[in-house]
Amino acid sequence: MRIHQEGKKIIPVAILIITGIAVLLYLLLKQYLIVYFLLAGLLFLAGVVVWFFRDPGINVSCSIKNILSVADGEVVTIEPAFEREYFKEERIQVSVFMSIFNAHINRVPVEGEVVYRAHRNGRFLPAFVAKSSEENERCTTVIRMKDGAEVMVRQIAGLLARRVITYANEGETVTQKQQLGFIRFGSRVDLFLPKNAVVKVKIHQKTIGGKTVIATLN
To answer: Region 98-121: what's the mean pLDDT?
Structure first.
């Protein structure tokens, strides 16, 4: 199993903390049966942390007309929405919720130039709550395609997520084969699409980042 680069920063620290707790429990508790039970739980927790940062290699289905899913997860919103931060107009919003069981790598949905990127601090409401899109910690990235169409990706922290990471910077050209970023421990991604986009997914449909076609552009 390949470990994502973000995991290489977190896993050693997590394992060190878990090991320290395990040693402390072993030294303080006299009932060894309880100690072994707790150690098994800590070992399981360490395994979960390692598994969370897995990087499943995929062959991205590149296409200049397809808007690909940014993340693995479940479609929770498909609706017209007024986008206030950048477009200041109505767009088609498609949101994907990532549970803690999904790989949390975020992928570039379309090829083009990054024309806007802004990170905003905020609350940590559950990511499946609609108002988390505007109130939670988030990073907004807008990609302008060669034909001038613009697609917005909004990475949103959730109840457990405490870090939104975005790799792309303004002025950079990105492709669908690239990773856009990473969100730690449960989160949501909103896509704001042009009004002429034809949505290809349905509510509660499972998505695979870089593979599932969210919408097409005419």
So the answer is: 90
Tell me the domains of the chain and their CATH numbers.
5-52 (no CATH), 66-216 (2.70.70.10)
Burial (CB < 10 A; 0-12, 13-18, 19+), residue 2, is exposed
**Confidence label for 16 from pLDDT (cuts 50, 70 and 90):** confident
d(CA 4, CA 147): 33
Q: How far apart are CA 77 and CA 97, in angstroms?
A: 9
Whether 187 sits among the annotated catalytic residues: the reply is yes
| Residue 24, CA atoms < 13 Å, CB-side half-sphere | 7
Sheet with 206-207, strands from edge to edge, namely 173-174, 112-120, 138-144, 150-157, 187-193, 89-98, 73-83, 206-207
pLDDT value, residue 186: 62
pTM, to two decimals = 0.78
Q: Where are the beta strands (DSSP E) in 100-205?
A: 105-107, 112-120, 138-144, 150-157, 164-166, 173-174, 179-183, 187-193, 198-199
Is residue 197 predicted with pLDDT exceeding 80? yes
